[in-house]
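worker-03 picked up job from queue 'complexes'. Input manifest follows; two sequence lines, order preserved.
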Amino acid sequence: AQSVTQPDIHITVSEGASLELRCNYSYGATPYLFWYVQSPGQGLQLLLKYFSGDTLVQGIKGFEAEFKRSQSSFNLRKPSVHWSDAAEYFCAVGPQYGNKLVFGAGTILRVKS
Amino acid sequence: NAGVTQTPKFQVLKTGQSMTLQCAQDMNHNSMYWYRQDPGMGLRLIYYSASEGTTDKGEVPNGYNVSRLNKREFSLRLESAAPSQTSVYFCASSRGTATQETQYFGPGTRLLVL
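worker-03 finished. Artifact:
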């Protein structure tokens, strides 16, 4: 069965500091991987996705993620965090067909000034 | 272009009451989804509709029914609400069921069952 683990429930970083949010997945075949962001009181917005090819993918808002098959990981990074990045971040995995995503529990990002 | 809209935004129910959550999209998408979000558990798929006229169970369908009224609308019904159904409910839509197709989410409905 597919599963996604986001080991960090909360992370606090200073504005301007770099950020890495961890995501580990369990999936039998080649996974399709996603990062979504949820601002307070809002729905989820897609940041980036990985299907194949270059293992470093760029997304919106200056985010990037790296797929590492050997580590079953898909960590999200940003070189310099802005206060507006404070939100909850979800990693998700899905099969090639069916679009039935399995989400991790989420990581809440706090940004301190 | 409103994207995905959900009504109501908030609802309080008593145990045993019924209600229907409404979802509509204006992006001409074929596929629609209902998720519930609970603290520490992320989002879990309740039901989905690959195309107009079809619906299928997701991970946690018990206690829910759905109707794909037309291509735009996909409703979620709680026939007899239970406190365990207290959650935030999100509707989403995508152009198709290939996983490459981005899912677009509505703002959510917060439901409290007393």
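worker-03 released lock.
Chain B touches chain A at residues 4, 31, 33, 40-45, 48, 58-59, 90, 92, 94, 96-103, 105-108 (CB under 8 Å).
The first strand of chain B starts at residue 4 and ends at 7.
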